[in-house]
Amino acid sequence: MAADGWRSLSNSHQHFATVARRSRLIAERPPSAWLLIVVLFRTLWFAYTAAITKMVRRGREEGQ
Predict the structure, then answer these.
(1) What single-letter DSSP state applies at residue 29?
(2) CA distance linking residue 52 with residue 48, whole number of Å
(3) Which one is predicted more confidently, 18 or 1?
(4) For 42-55, what is each residue's pLDDT tens digit?
(5) Backbone angles phi, psi at 29, to 5 degrees
(6) pTM to 2 decimals?
(7) Between the CA atoms of 32, 37, 43 and 46, what dihedral angle is there, to the nearest 10 degrees?
(8) Which stretches are transmembrane (predicted)?
(9) Where are the domains of the chain?
(10) Is the CA virtual torsion 46, 51, 56, 58 positive or negative?
(11) 6-18 pLDDT tens trace
């Protein structure tokens, strides 16, 4: 009886250890994904602001 309780306790402990290991792997992986997202976002933002600046500059030149 006590052995069954101990076995289930040890199984749940192994399960939590596996979950913790998986979550740690998931937690270690994203930096590259987040870095990719940030770089993409900054590139798009730079292109967007450059296009607006170009349009504003062209508008000023045509206005003169």
Answers:
(1) S
(2) 6
(3) 18
(4) 999 999 999 999 99
(5) -75, -45
(6) 0.43
(7) -130
(8) 33-51
(9) 2-63
(10) positive
(11) 555 566 666 666 6
